[in-house]
Each structure stands twice: as C-alpha cells, then as structure tokens.
What does this fold into?
Amino acid sequence: MRARRVRAGLKGWGGVGAMAAICALALAFVLLLPLTQSHGEGAADGLGGPGAAAGAQAADDTCEAPEKQTLSPSAADGPAIAAIKARQGEKRKLIVGVDQNSYRWGYRDPNNTRAELEGFDIDLAHRIAQDILGDPDAVQFKAIPTNQRIPALQEGRVDMVVRTMTITCGRLADVAFSAPYFTTGQQLLAPKSSPVEGYDDTLGGKKVCTAASSTANTQLTEDRDAGRIPKSVDLDTVVPNQLDCLVRLQLGEVDAVVTDGALAASQAAQDPTVELKGDPFTTEYYGVAMNKDADDLVRRVNRVLVEYRANGWQASYDKWLSATLGSDAATSKPPTPAQYLRTS
It folds into this structure.
C-alpha cells in the first residue's frame, strides 16, 4: 500500500495554496472584505431598456442547452436592484459570493500587502458593481465554499455568486444564471510521474478527488455508473473546495483531481510537479448565479456582459489567465451573450 507522504515540490504557490486551503477549512466560511481600490470606469449605456419583456427565468423542460436558459438584457431597475440601491451608508454595496483560494480567479496574493481579493472573477464583480451602483468598489465580498454557492443565494446571504460556477440544468432548478462569461471543460490533474494518461482506463483503481456539489463530482459518478470509466475508480474523496483537492494530491492521499480545465491549469501553475492529463472531456460555461426571483438583476447582469465582452473581458483574461491558459483566448471566450438569450 502506498505510504502517505508530502510531495516534494510543496513550495512556492503550491505551499501557499495548501496553507490557504487548510486555514480555510478551520475558519467560518463567510468572510467579509470591504474594498477601497479603484478599478476603472463603468460600462456604457444603451443596451436594453425599461421596455424589456418581463417573465421569470426557468429551465427548459428538455434543457439540452442550460447555458441558453437566461433572460434578455435590460438596464431597467426592478425589485432586486431597488433593494440593493436602498442599502444605506457603508452597507450600500453589492454583496457577491466569491472564492478566495482559486489562483488567478479569486484569491489573495501573499505578495500584495493590502490582502485584497483579485482575479478574473473579481474583475467581473467590480464591473457589475460599477454598472449598478456607479462605483466599482461598492462590493462586499463573501468567501464561500463550492458546496455553499446555492444555499448562500437561496438564503439571501449574497446578491450573486461570481465563482467559476458552471451553468447546469440541475442548478437552474434552484438558481438563475446570466449568459455565459467563460467557456471551459472538465479535465484531469495528476502528478507528472503518474501513469494516469487522461480520462480513460488508466484511472482504473485510482483515487480521484472532486469538490462537493461540483459538476466534476456529478460527471464522474454518472460515468462510472454507466461504465464509461472503470468501475474501480475510487470517488470517495469529496471536499468542500476545489483547492482542497490539490492539497490532497500533494499529500499523496489521492492519485488525481478532476475539475474545470481553467481551474486545473491554475492549480498546475501553483505546483510544478503536477500537470493536466489528457484533453477536456466536456464543454461547460461559467455564469453569474442569482436568486431565481431576481429577474431584473439577471437582465442587468446580461446587459453588463454584452458590453464587458466587447470592452474589458480580453484585458482581464490577458492579465490573469493568459499565463496559465495561453495567449489565445478563442476557446475560452463564450459566444456573444445575445446568441444565448431567450426573448421571454
């Protein structure tokens, strides 16, 4: 039986990632962080308007394309946006659920003395706050684990979740989503020395880590039950956050990790002893998640995304993700949001 050991190479960002994840597990899952740093100008006006059609967002009965199950963009205020704007004083902020441990998505750079959250998802949250409240810094971030994203919305602890959250048919039963803002797919992460070659028979008898309530966990369970991967794959290691899987891998407690390829690439950048194995085996889309009744907020975010895709998305990608995903963003940038919007 393989002895448990701390992997050589638990250094640099790998060590920092492990420490962050371990500390996160010991803390309460909610973390408030008021921000003071300026983040640029707001979105342009002119997309959608007060005359936009009403109608609740709901998953299509067949739901063959969950990324298309959203509402048309509008600049109109409604009950959800009015409630946000009605907050007084220091509480007049957009409350956004994010990650604080996903390198280059939502994380704290230990070299940044201000300890502010930063990353691709954080940039988008600032842009939405600019559009709704006129101030990119009018954001209160709450760090939430992967398995708490939906409960946080349903219980009203956050206005929205911007946290590498894949749009799925199952989730549409519980929350509403914006149009996609990023394209990715499930991928395997394992030590460079591992005999695992990808999402195939080489996984037989291996321990694979996934995050609870993640699309990876659902996909692997379904594929193992259907015989698309070996029945001997051990899926018992399920953790609250994706980064916890990297820690388990570094400690030798699991043989591989399955998560979104975009996150896996960031984890590989944190630890040079691991690498992506094989190609992505799904196509998935990240969306901004909101309460199912917040139609006006969904439409407003979609309006922001139309403009952000044309002015801001690429700059954020270049700053945060090009180092891990490559300079060509063609496979990561989703189609124009208008192509995904329902008319009612």
User: Anything to note?
Assistant: The two ends are 58 Å apart (CA to CA). The mean pLDDT is 83. Residues 295-310 form the longest helix (16 residues). The CA atoms of residues 84 and 94 lie 7 Å apart.
